[in-house]
Amino acid sequence: MRHVHFTDGNEIALLHSGAAFYPALIAALDAARVEIYLETYIFAIDDTGILVRDALQRAAARGVVVYVINDWLGTGRVQTRQLKQTLGAAGVQHRAFNPWFRRGVARSHRKLCVVDRQVAFVGGLNINDDFISDSGHAIPLPAPRWDFAVRITGPLVHDIYREMDAQWLRVGHMKLKARWENFKRLRHRPPVPVHGETQAALVVRDNFRNRRTIQRAYLQALGRARESAFLANPYFAPGRKMRRALEEAASRGVKVTLLLGVGQFAMQDAVAHSFYPKLLRAGVRIVEYTKTQLHAKVAVVDDKWSTVGSSNYDGLSLFVNQEANVVVQDPAFSQYLREEIEAGAATGRVVHLSDFQHVRWYKRAAYGAAFLLYRTVIHIITLGQDA
Questions:
Q1: What is the pTM (predicted TM-score) of this model?
Q2: CA dihedral 220, 112, 239, 360 (to 10 degrees)
Q3: Residue 192 DSSP SS3
């Protein structure tokens, strides 16, 4: 496993939901002069997706070299084919990640963008409508999806660029001539300037050298926690190491708050409920977010350490899929993100241990069965390495 490599001198802006993220992304795409890399799990052909797609096409028309990767399963076979045709006709280079599961079951769940090696975006937002559920049934949401991304300038952008360039090569091979032309365009680019004082790192999960890097970052942060830990995530089904870290932190007197999404998938909710009693007995505070679809994957520990990214707290994200988070060590940023999580929790439903004391036997059995089924599937997929 690679060590987390922090860089100084970054400026990182928190973008709350699509209302902040998509305008910032499109503005960066429209300002591009040399090169764009964009990677997403879902690239929907809806009103939001069309705005982003058109910005990519405008950039290509200006002579910008544009590379786009979307996950074949996340986006869907038909829409991936349509994207490839439309973007290709406009001069955008497009690749789909793992079509027809040719490279196994792993998906690319990352949401990344780098423009001109000067500005980058990392987070949990796909390219899709904020007011439509991403469950595949086009269900309108009562409020915009609750999610976060960050806009980054500074030295960390280069680390994100290198990761995206490597991913492009892994997904498919760039012809030598195309790489030479791209090198000539960028060889005179000035170095990425220092924009701020924030220390941050890119943390990725893959099935090569970074199999447990994201989980290790969480475990280390929770292990060092002394006062508080606020974590928000839509899909809660971590391995026992992550659950134990939460329980041990709460047992030490750390104020641990889990803000979890519910109501999207019944099976997922049942698995999460199977963990609730033990976590609650350990002193973990659990809040279920019900205002709209919670999609954020964020955390803050001791108002000093924080993370924003694509990784859920489930077996697929922690042990199978490719993910990308940014870890930030900055009190001002962390406090701001913590306030956003607390504001979300204030609108949610607090779960009490007493809620489970009178649960009917068949519901308890359903929770246990859901966990066993989930555990078996993940154990098979990961060849028993999901502890």
A1: 0.93
A2: 120
A3: coil
Return the residue matching tokens 């996950």: 71
Provide the token pair at 60: 């290509």
How confident is the model over 314-327, as pLDDT tens digits?
A: 999 999 999 999 99
Cα-Cα-Cα-Cα dihedral sign, residues 92, 82, 95, 106: positive
The residue behind tokens 């001069």 is: 91
DSSP type of residue 208: S
pLDDT per residue as tens digits for the range 123-164: 999 999 999 999 877 899 999 999 999 999 999 999 999 999
Residue 283 half-sphere exposure toward CB, CA atoms < 13 A: 13
Active site residues: 109, 111, 116, 295, 297, 302
Q: What is the dihedral of CA 109, 233, 340, 264, to 10 degrees?
A: 90
Tokens, residue 200? 């941050």
Choose among 298, 288, 238, 239: nearest CA to 264.
288
Q: Which residues of the chain have pLDDT under 50?
A: 1
Domain ranges in the chain are 10-198, 201-381
Nearest 10 degrees: Cα torsion 152, 156, 160, 163: -170
- CATH superfamily assigned to domain 201-381: Endonuclease Chain A (3.30.870.10)
Whole-angstrom distance, CA of residue 139 vs CA of residue 182: 42
Which fold would CATH assign to domain 10-198? Endonuclease; Chain A (3.30.870)
Q: Cα–Cα distances in Å, from 171 out to 107, 164, 168?
A: 12, 11, 5
- The Cα-based distances of 81 to 70, 76, 110, 209, 257 in angstroms read 11, 9, 20, 31, 42
Say whether 377 sits in a helix, a strand or coil: helix
